[in-house]
Amino acid sequence: MIGKLNHVAIATPDLDKATAIYRDVLGAKVSVPVDQPAHGVTTVFVELPGSKIELLAPLGDNSPIANFLSRNPGGGVHHLCFEVDDIIAARDRLLAQGARLAGAPEPKTGAHGKPVLFLHPKDFVGTLIELEQA
Ligand code: CO
After folding, report:
1. pLDDT band for position 5 (50/70/90)?
2. Catalytic residue among 47, 83, 106, 130
3. For residue 28, with 0-12 CB atoms within 10 Å meaning exposed, 13-18 middle and 19 or more buried, which class applies?
4. What's the CA-to-centroid distance between 98 and ligand 1, angstroms?
5. Which residues are placed with Cβ below 5 angstroms of ligand 1, an ion?
6. Which of 10, 68, 81, 134 qualifies as a FRET site for 51, CA 20 to 30 Å off?
7. 20: part of which helix (H) or strand (E)?
8. What's this model's pTM, rounded to 2 decimal places?
9. 132 an active-site residue?
10. Are 53 and 22 in contact (CB under 8 A)?
11. pLDDT (tens digit, 9 = 90+) per residue, 98-126?
12. CA–centroid distance, residue 126 to ligand 1 (Å)
């Protein structure tokens, strides 16, 4: 059911520092920072062949990554995003197997303008999973 690994998201309290590590130390191509007020984050995309890393820093008072950063003050891997062909069919199949969603059951428009859903880390080996309709 899941397809390509679309991105790995890494939360960081210091977006400039994290960007510099990927750009200057690891030699990757990075985007400019983009504020995503609807998602409570500022993002930098690190372009890799066939995939990407999404660096996330909190934006505003109620950022969805604030709790994660309070537990992981130095930052860390926040979620994996897999592509699916049909997000509603994928959701219904997962729910039928007893998997839990993290957040509302209706897909939201994600940072790339495509429908996304999040799956609860307790049901997925301790990892928050984002599904994105490709
Ligand atoms: Co993501």
Report:
1. very high
2. 130
3. middle
4. 23
5. 9, 81, 130
6. 68
7. helix 15-20
8. 0.93
9. no
10. yes
11. 999 998 899 999 888 899 999 999 999 99
12. 16
Residue 17 pLDDT: 98
Ligand 1 centroid to residue 27 C-alpha, Å? 22
- Gap from CA of 80 to ligand 1 centroid (Å): 7
Amino acid at position 41, single letter: V
Q: Which two tokens stand for residue 25?
A: 């130390």
- Residue 91 predicted with pLDDT over 90: yes
What angle (nearest 5°) sits at the alpha carbon of residue 29, between those of residues 28 and 30? Answer: 110
Statement: residue 19 has pLDDT above 90: yes
**Which tokens go with 20?**
């510099």
* Angle at 125 (CA atoms; ends 71, 9), nearest 5 degrees: 55
Segment among 28-32, 64-68, 111-115 with least mean pLDDT: 111-115
